[in-house]
Amino acid sequence: MSESRIVAVANQKGGVGKTTTAINLAAALGEQGQRVVVIDLDPQGNASTGLGVSPESRPITSYDLLTGDASFSDCLLPTQFEKLSLIPSDRDLASVDFEVANRSGRMQLLQKKISHVADFDFILIDCPPALGLLTLNAMVAADSVLVPLQAEFYALEGLSQLLMTVREVRQAANPDLRIEGVLLTMSDNRNNLSQQVEADARNTLSGLVYNTVIPRNVRLSEAPSHAMPVLQYDSNSKGSIAYRELAKEFLSRQFVAA
Ligand code: ADP
Ligand code: MG
C-alpha cells in the first residue's frame, strides 16, 4: 500500500479559510471515497470542534503527537463523517514553540510520526495563523502546501512571504515540497476589489490557482456551530457545491502529478 499523501493547509493570516477548507475538502474527499485524516495543528482547535469533537472528548491530541511518545494511530479519533478521521488539538499546543525551542530535530517532530503512514489516501494538516514552529513542522512533514487566499488588498503580499518560507523549508529540510494549489476563498463577485485581486492572483501565479473558487456563503460559516462540515449541514448550499468541485479538481491534479 502506498504512503498517504500529506497536504499542509497554510497561510499565516488568520480568517482566510484554512480551517473551513481543511474540514470541507476532507469531507468532500470522504464523500468521493477517499480515506482522509485531518490533523488539527492549531491550538484554537477549530477543526476539531468543526468535525464534532468537543474539547472534553480529546483524550490524546496533536500536542502528544508532537512532544510525546504517542504514535499516529494512538491519536486518531473516528468522526461521524464518512471515511474521515481526526487528530484533535487543544490549548497545550500553544506552548510547543517554547517547550521544544532547544530540542534538536524540532522541525521534524511531526514528520517523524507521520512520514510512513499508509492506511489513508490523504492527510490534511490545518495550520495555525503564523509561520512559527507548528506550521514549519507541517511543511517539513508534507508533500505539498495548499494555500487558501482571501481576495483582499494585502493578500498577494502575504502570499509572497509564505512562498519564501516554502523555499526555505525546501532548502533546509524538505526538498520535494510542492505547492498543491492556491484556493481563492470568500469570493464575492459583486465586489470589484475582490475581482481585481483574483485576476492578479491568476496572472501572477497562473497554473497554481484552482479553477474552483469558494464563494462567500453563510452556510459555510454556520456549519461549525452545528459541529459538522457544510456538506452534512446543508448538502445543496453553494458552499457544499464549491467544496465538492474543489475535491474533484484536487483529485484530478493528483492523477496528473502521479
Ligand atoms: P482560518 O482557519 O484561516 O483562520 P476560517 O476557516 O476559520 O479561517 O474562517 C474564518 C471565518 O470565516 C470563520 O468564521 C468561517 O466560518 C468563515 N468563513 C470561511 N470561509 C467562508 C466562506 N466561504 N463564506 C463565508 N464564511 C466563511
Ligand atoms: Mg483556522
Shape: globular
- Ligands present: adenosine-5'-diphosphate, magnesium ion
Q: Please write the string of helix (H) and strand (E) elements.
A: EHEHHHEEHHEHEHEHHHH
User: Would you identify the CATH H-level superfamily?
Assistant: P-loop containing nucleotide triphosphate hydrolases
Number of domains: 1
CATH C-level category: Alpha Beta
CATH architecture: 3-Layer(aba) Sandwich
Largest sheet: 7 strands, mixed
Which residue ranges are poorly predicted, with pLDDT under 50 across at least 5 consecutive positions? none
**Would you tell me the structural class of the helices and strands?**
alpha/beta
Termini separation comes to 15 Å
Q: Report the count of strand segments.
A: 7
Largest beta sheet: what is the strand line-up?
A: 3-4-2-5-1-6-7
Average pLDDT figure: 95
CATH topology type: Rossmann fold
Using only C-alpha atoms, the radius of gyration works out to: 17 Å
β content, as a range? 5-15%
The helix tally amounts to 12
Helical content band: 40-55%
Secondary-structure blueprint of this entry?
Layout: E1 5-9, H1 18-31, E2 36-40, H2 46-50, H3 62-67, H4 72-75, E3 77-78, E4 84-87, H5 96-99, H6 109-114, E5 122-126, H7 133-141, E6 144-150, H8 155-172, E7 178-185, H9 192-205, H10 218-222, H11 230-233, H12 238-257
Parallel strand pairs: 1-5, 1-6, 2-4, 2-5, 6-7
Antiparallel strand pairs: 3-4
The structure holds adenosine-5'-diphosphate and magnesium ion (MG).
Adenosine-5'-diphosphate binds at residues 14-20, 46, 129, 185-186, 214, 216-217, 220-221, 224.
Domain AAA: 5-179
Function: Involved in chromosome partition. Localize to both poles of the predivisional cell following completion of DNA replication.
Organism: Paracoccus aestuariivivens
